[in-house]
UniProtKB/TrEMBL annotation:
Residues 195-205 have a biased composition (Low complexity). Residues 569-584 have a biased composition (Polar residues). PANTHER family: ENOLASE, ENOLASE 4. It comes from Phoxinus phoxinus (Eurasian minnow). Residues 180-234, 549-584 are annotated as: Disordered. GO terms for molecular function: magnesium ion binding; phosphopyruvate hydratase activity. This is Enolase 4. GO terms for cellular component: phosphopyruvate hydratase complex. It catalyses: (2R)-2-phosphoglycerate = phosphoenolpyruvate + H2O. Keywords: Glycolysis, Lyase.
Length: 584
């Protein structure tokens, strides 16, 4: 009996000892992490405040003490954008309070340009290329970028973008080496295959005779036309860089409980900044380019540029009224226009025979509505001349069947600007190769109109040396390219200190509007007032304006320099690097 009791007593004592040791370890664990003090503090605070939601109060208190969320994984999938083209959507998952949660997503469209036109003017069927680019981007995200960024703090944008930039640079160099090897193999094959044919000497004199019969005039026109520069190669999969950088920035803003534009501002400006300025929206109101029904090809976009003093809603209402009035005027008998449609940019697409008809339409509609065209309202013309060159003739096909040499086009622009003074900007009036005509046009109209380069801006990767702009250019349309991180975009805008900057939105979600506001650009080109995707961007801009007005933080933008005076500044030597940014 006593033996059994002794055995039982010894066994219970061991269990008690183990339990006692466990309690000591737990107490030490909680004490080392300050749990008792924090619980006592929050209970005392909650007793005096007596909140209605006790557990919500406790949840908020302890959530502020939780570890910083870190990226656990990044996923991607292929979706369709507002134009029906394929795009890449990414989602960021973070470990938040010991749970994996999807925090944010972002969408970015394919490589620019989205219109399927090459800079040489040749139509490009890029559906296969787009599919390849998207599948490569998704593979990069799944196999490389997601593991590389696992454990990163999403608020550390610079570190994330550095990883993305270095990764893409490595892929770019690999792609460049493979292209060089292919060229070397092609050259070696050509040298071997060129040995047998010996009939080429008989063809050479025939060509010389023909050229002699044509005369010197034919030769001079061919020599005066510089060949189109080969387009900068774009690496398939580059979309992964931009969309991952963007979705990380959106994730950081969501975790910080701040709008994306505020977060972008904090990345750009170190000190806190309450007062913010909104970019002025540029509205495409008319399109008479190559895709229109009529003969006119030259006016790809007629863009309304309001003054800095007008609010976003006021500008949008003005654009809508102007489009309705133009429709009403077109329905009359004064204009012999083709069918009225809607362009890919969301503007009225009308077929005209001559540029004067389109500009007369805009002028008449503004007069009917008593709009201050020429003072508070100005016009910009996107000529998109790089897509109008007929290389077989060496001339621009400004209208179907009507070809003009680069010098003749200079005279045409001069006549239009003299006849329509509200035109204050010409975008891509020539190819970038027509250097002499850029310079001549700038000297002729430079005092009243500025020249802006879009496709003619010699775009190149951020890490390579910038190519010179065509002479006389006083503004450049920069874009949020697929190989550009958010940090690259902010830096690109910051480098443009002496000029009014603009941002042109392309395919993708409304994040581009927040990027424009946060980066402090002066103008935002969103396209026309048609289409759900574009109107979402306009609505987002109005939403930001209302937020800043309610907070009392909407500042009046200080006008750096009128766009019409930019060319004068360029000629005087002060210069300006850029005028516009876009995401495509």
């Amino acid at each position: 009996m006593s033996y059994k009791g002794f055995v039982s007593h010894s066994r219970v004592s061991k269990e008690d000892q183990d339990f006692y040791d466990l309690k000591n370890k737990a107490a030490e664990y909680y004490r080392s992490n300050g749990v008792p003090q924090k619980i006592e503090s929050v209970l005392n605070e909650m007793f005096w405040q007596k909140p209605d939601d006790i557990y919500g109060y406790l949840a908020n208190y302890f959530s502020r003490l939780s570890c910083t969320p870190v990226i656990s994984k990044i996923t991607g999938r292929q979706v369709f954008d507002g134009r029906g083209s394929t795009a890449v959507q990414t989602e960021v998952y973070c470990i938040i309070r010991n749970e994996e949660k999807m925090v944010c997503s972002a969408v970015m469209g394919g490589p620019w340009p989205c219109d399927g036109m090459a800079e040489s003017g040749e139509a490009v069927s890029n559906s296969d290329q787009q599919h390849l680019s998207n599948t490569t981007a998704l593979k990069w995200i799944r196999e490389h970028l997601s593991p590389m960024l696992q454990g990163f703090n999403p608020t550390d944008q610079n570190s994330v973008d550095k990883i993305l930039r270095e990764f893409f640079m490595a892929r770019y160099l690999e792609h460049k080496d493979s292209l060089n090897r292919e060229k070397e193999e092609e050259l070696s094959d050509e040298t071997v295959s060129e040995a047998p044919p010996l009939a080429t000497p008989t063809l050479a004199p025939a060509k010389d005779k023909k050229s002699g019969e044509k005369g010197k005039k034919g030769n001079s026109t061919e020599k005066l036309l510089p060949p189109a520069e080969p387009p900068e190669p774009r690496l398939p999969g580059a979309t992964a860089v931009a969309v991952v950088s963007l979705v990380v920035a959106k994730t950081a803003a969501g975790l910080l409980g701040a709008p994306l534009y505020r977060h972008i501002t904090s990345l750009r400006v170190q000190q806190a900044q309450n007062e913010m300025h909104l970019p002025v929206p540029m509205i495409t109101i008319l399109s008479c380019g190559k895709n229109s029904v009529g003969k006119l090809n030259l006016l790809e976009e007629v863009i309304l540029m309001p003054s800095f003093s007008q609010g976003v809603r006021e500008v949008i209402d003005m654009g809508l009224e102007l489009q309705c009035e133009m429709r009403r005027v077109l329905n009359g008998s004064a204009y012999k226009a083709g069918p009225i449609g809607v362009s890919d940019e969301g503007a009225l697409q009308v077929g005209f025979e001559h540029p004067e008809q389109a500009l007369d339409l805009v002028t008449e509609a503004c007069v009917n509505l008593a709009l201050p065209l020429g003072s508070d309202l100005r016009l910009a013309i996107n000529c998109a001349a790089h897509g109008l060159m007929d290389y077989s003739r060496g001339k621009y096909e400004v209208m179907s069947g009507c070809h003009k040499s680069p010098d003749e086009l200079v005279d045409m622009y001069e006549g239009l600007i003299n006849k329509y003074p509200p035109i204050k900007s010409l975008i891509d009036p020539f190819r970038k190769e027509d250097v002499d005509q850029w310079e001549r046009l700038a000297s002729v109209i430079g005092q009243t109109c500025c020249l802006i380069a879009d496709a003619a801006s010699n775009l190149c990767p951020r890490w390579s040396d910038a190519k010179p702009l065509p002479p006389g250019v006083t503004g450049v349309i920069n874009r949020h390219h697929n190989d550009m991180t958010v940090s690259d975009l902010i830096q690109s805008i910051a480098e443009q200190k002496d000029a009014e900057t603009m941002l042109a939105a392309g395919c993708g979600d409304t994040s581009i509007v927040d990027l424009a506001v946060g980066s402090g650009v002066s103008f935002l080109k969103l396209g026309g007032l048609r289409g759900g995707e574009r109107m979402d961007k306009y609505n987002r801009l109005m939403e930001i304006e209302e937020e800043l007005e309610q907070e009392g933080n909407l500042g009046a933008r200080e006008k750096k320099q009128p766009l019409s005076d930019l060319s004068e500044a360029f000629n005087s030597g002060s210069g300006c690097d850029s005028v516009t940014i876009s995401s495509k």
